[in-house]
Amino acid sequence: MTHAIRIHSYGGPEVLRWETVDVPEPGQGQARVRHTAIGLNFIDTYERTGLYPLQLPAVLGREAAGVVEAVGPGVTQLKVGDRIAYAFNSAGAYSEARVLAAERLVRIPEGVSDNQAAALMLKGMTAQMLLRQTFRVRKGNTLLVTAAVGGVGSILVQWAKHLGAKVIAVVSTTAKAERARELGADHVVLSSEDWVAQTKALTKNRGVDVVYDSVGKDTFMGSLDCLRPRGLMVTYGNASGPVPPMAPLELSKRGSLFLTRPTLFHYIPTRTLLVRGERDVRSGCEVGDRRARRANVSAAGGGEGARGFGGKANGRIDGTGAVRNSRQGAKTPRPDKQSSEFEISDFSVLASLRLGESHLSVIGAQLGCFSTRSHQARIVGYGARSKPPSCATCVYAYSAMSASE
How far apart are CA 209 and CA 207, in angstroms? Predict the structure, then answer.
């Protein structure tokens, strides 16, 4: 019997339901994957609330890691028992098992844990798309990154610095400002202050070459005002809500600006491009782990025994995220001799999804708090047999998930 977390209507975390589902045998060119870790992303909340509509009932989740259980006819690149990870263009990862096109699965190399792979595929390749394809960042460029310690933002800051760019980070709190400095940001500004004026002052009124904005509605127009003439505005998220309609004349008035709204899967339509992007990301991560070990920093929380690439786990919405199926054993990455471009703040150990067992952690609360930006730390380690969290949103999700056992 296979389980999944499904929604039958749009709404808050209370719409998540733990249910049995049928998983078919793989067909031509397909593989069936038993999930061991599942990535968490903001797009999950967009789909849960209906901002991005799904065909209901639906299983959420765009990325995961796992083990190949079976392969269909014509599959030659994978075999039963292979450890794989994926980022997929349709939802369905919040499940014990799933059938997917085999050509969209990537083997997990030795030394990379399932937690890390699940937390990195979508966010890491999104960062690769933004920095290496949407705008090819080079030494001397100046960037503005909103939500700079978020899942993608924390990668952007570090990778851009490795490429020789100057990075201005926009964050919401002083604690996040400190984290942005740790990641290497040259300048940090608070979104509660006049960050547009500060950015202009930092660039001597020239403006930045490119803005990477995942916040959406609340920062969009301000981000445009931070660009130099003919600069590029990259809006790739809607954390504060979708950007309202805008007249193209606004781009002309600000210096003939360019605007793009990229989607990762348009940049990886073929297996060749998928593998190329994944390898680029992996080459950038491999010794963030070594750098963290040199600093004697290890991941905290959850009790899963996994170490993040960068090792600095926390309960806020910063860094990458995954939940794991604890029926599979956690693996700790071994040291790697290759060089690093950036470290990953991996909080995959903070929430444990125990699929097929009596203990189900509050994944609904984790996702619910993404929209409220509060109480994130309070749900760490809570499960259906534990003391519930105190956040009202989390308690609601906790109750729903506990009742579904």
Answer: 7
What is the Cα–Cα distance from 398 to 389, expressed in whole angstroms? 8
Q: Is the pLDDT of residue 405 over 80?
A: no
Average pLDDT of the residues in 2-23: 89
Is residue 115 within 8 Å of residue 346, measured between CB atoms?
yes
User: CATH number of 124-265: 3.20.20.30, 3.40.50.720, 3.40.640.10, 3.30.70.3550?
Assistant: 3.40.50.720
Work out whether the CA dihedral 300, 144, 279, 271 comes out positive or negative.
positive
Asked, as a colleague might, if the bond just before 229 is cis with ω within 30 of 0, I would say no
pLDDT, tens digit, 9 for 90 and up, residues 325-384:
544 433 323 323 232 232 322 222 222 233 323 222 333 333 333 333 333 322 223 233
Q: How far apart are CA 235 and CA 366, in angstroms?
A: 25
User: Distances from the Cα of 66 to the Cαs of 110, 115, 133, 324, 391, in angstroms?
Assistant: 14, 10, 28, 10, 32
Q: Is the full-model pTM beyond 0.70?
A: yes
In this structure, the number of other CB atoms found within 10 A of the CB of residue 325 comes to: 24
